[in-house]
Amino acid sequence: MIAEVDTPSRPESGTGEGHRLPVRPRLVVASAFMLFLELALIRWTGSNIVHLSYFTNFVLLGSFLGIGLGFLRVGRSKAQPYYSPVVLALLVLVVLIFPVTVDRETEGVLYFTSLSTSGPPAWAILPVVFAAAALVLMGPAELVGRCFPELPRLEAYRYDLIGSLTGIALFSLLSFASAPPVVWGVIVAVAYGVLLWPRSLTRYLVLVTLPSLVVVAALASETLTAGALWSPYYKVTYERSAYGGVPVMTISVNGIPHQQAIPAANRLEWERQYALPYERAATASLDDVLIVGAGSGTDVAIALSKGAEHVDAVEIDPKLRELGATYHPDRPYSDPRVTTHITDGRAYLERTGKKYDLILFALPDSLTLVSGASSLRLESYLFTEQAMAAARDHLKPGGAFAMYNYYREQWLVDRLALTAQTAFGHKPCVDEVGSGRQAVITSGVTPAAQRCAAEWAGAKVDTPPPAVDDRPFLYLHGRDIPSIYLIALGLILLVSIVAVRAVAGPFRRMRPYADLFLLGVSFLLLETKNVTGFALLFGTTWVVNAVVFAGVLVAVLAAVEVTRRFRTPSLPVMYAVLLGGLVLAAVVPNSWLLGLPVPLRAVLAVVIAFLPIFAANVVFAKRFADTADATVSFGANLLGAILGGCLEYLSLVIGYEGLLVVAGLLYLGAFALMPRAARAL
After folding, report:
1. 484 and 350 together in one domain
2. How many domains does the chain have?
3. Residue 483 lies in a domain
4. Are 427 and 521 members of one domain?
5. CB 29 within 8 A of CB 80
6. Could you tell me if 22 and 99 lie in one domain?
7. 10-residue averages of pLDDT along the chain (681 residues)
């Protein structure tokens, strides 16, 4: 029975005995700090090391490694983890002194524009960031782990989850308030000061206070010198100037030039692609126009200059819209004919019932991934066959759809044109203008609704098929995992194995908890599937992302509370419920859910997504309560998340639905490895 095994263990050496905070509030604070620090590292390093805008998983995996090592280190040292603030200070200084712009030429990963690389190369800076993230997170994790032996198993886990929810809530609140990183740094400094009890005042001042002051000062300096606006997605900087007497505002995100706010007349004069959608569309009027990726407003200003009676401007980043409203020379967002919507473009299409004369996807390319969700970019679900079909369904009779960008590769132009052809049922107009494969793809709701200069020759034989919602990776030419990912992930796994052996000693300590390790692997795959699924159903916005992660923790907490308070079915029964939940999630397609009203869609999506999560965590809670060593068993589970984070790249090959199959097989493996005695729990 749980009640018989869920008893406090005798405090081990290196626990929090003598700390100013009682164990329960200390555990909540340490857990909140741990998750807050992880989220802050992912956001901040990605804004300065632009490789990490596309490989956010590297910091996430480094964090998982550090957290697992921190738990495994409990009981092996009495020393305070002073190394954590010291390494964080060094990491902040290195990143600020050696910022990196992205190398857009990497084989297998395609971007819209090409910029030269500055700063250390990826092979030099990424290992440094990965290792530093692991060492930084190892400290708070060790502080959390030291609380576990002082409490009953599930009570400790409960307070750990409450702290994690607090950390997510705090970081989300700061994101909503557009707080700069110096605020994050102050919170981190205070947390270090509270949690690292000064057994030696001199060491405390040198190893905690001084590094914390360095972090706060460095982040304050960045905030003041860069003059950046911090959106939930980017570090946004802007510069106002004049070009040939024309006012121009250049906007950069994460250090990369991203947009220019230019008067509509000058934009049309300088770049012909912006006028082509209006020439190719045969619509008789422009009563209603939808612009997805409205940004700072130039595309909106052009639509108004072309006679649009009303424009719905959709932009995912509130700061880009804010800059356009304040500084765009044409002031398009002040025009009464314009209504703005701060949301994801695909989500807007799925929610609105409005019809349009013209729908434009106006350079809706992001420069970041959905945090913690593998290779899913903010705009990934806009370029699928289903997205273009949704745009077609929102056109009035005689209406037209158009998209334009700098595509750089002929196969990408052909792939998007083929996607439009598949969605609309006929060949689109394809115009290539200027350099850099500038292209405009226009498709009328019927062939008569478009006026092509010449018929498109059609996609070449080697053109990839249209991207689909289950595998929305437009920029990958083949159905494989690019070599850069395979090499990096292989090195991460190798470093993780060596680090675990060095910190925790022989692997036989974790051998009894092999099933908990596999539970960690499969749970991260399940979490990835839910993040990407909710991004499709409700938008790839930061709000949806935060709600999903918080929802996962709430489901885990609910599972722990149910296990603590009630007699739950045996582990074999709970595994059957878990596998049944995975089957349900696999057989209910997202396409069916997208067709439902939003409230009903939300209810069913939550039930389908969180049933297996709840069952999986009842399994974990029952098994964890029966373990002989709380920190080692919990650490094994966390280390499994590293392998899960690597395996989520299988979605590039098998799609996100395929991850459910992999997760199901891993759960079966966990059941097979479960000790025989545990099956009666």
Report:
1. no
2. 2
3. yes
4. no
5. no
6. yes
7. 34 51 92 94 84 72 89 82 95 85 44 49 79 94 91 90 94 90 95 86 90 95 81 86 86 81 88 90 92 93 95 93 93 96 92 95 68 61 93 95 86 93 96 80 95 91 92 86 82 88 80 91 90 86 84 89 88 94 92 88 91 92 85 85 89 92 95 81 65
Residue entry with tokens 């960045």 = 222
Torsions phi, psi of 196, nearest 5? -90, 90
Q: Are residues 280 and 399 in the same domain?
A: yes
- Residue 245 forms part of a structural domain: no
Q: Note whether 487 and 479 are within 8 A (CB).
A: no
Q: Report if residue 459 sits inside a domain.
A: no
Q: How many CB atoms are closer than 10 A to CB 29?
A: 23
The answer to whether the beta carbons of residues 417 and 257 sit under 8 Å apart is no
Domain that holds residue 203: 2-227+478-680
Q: Which residue, chain included where needed, has tokens 């603590």?
A: 564
Alpha carbons 365 and 362: distance in angstroms, whole number: 9
For residue 506, being part of any structural domain is answered with yes
Between strands 311-315 and 289-292, the pairing is parallel
| Beta carbons within 8 Å of 466's beta carbon, 6+ residues apart | 384, 385, 415, 418, 419, 422, 423
CATH code for the domain of 623: 1.20.1250
- The residue assigned the tokens 């409450």 is 162
Question: Token pair of 31, please?
Answer: 């857990």
For residue 242, the cross-strand partners are 247
- The residue length of the chain stands at 681
Q: What is the DSSP letter of 8?
A: P
Q: What φ, ψ does residue 570 adopt, rounded to 5°?
A: -65, 165
- The Cα 250–Cα 255 span in angstroms is 12
Residues 86 and 141 in one domain: yes
Contact 408, 242 (CB under 8 A): no
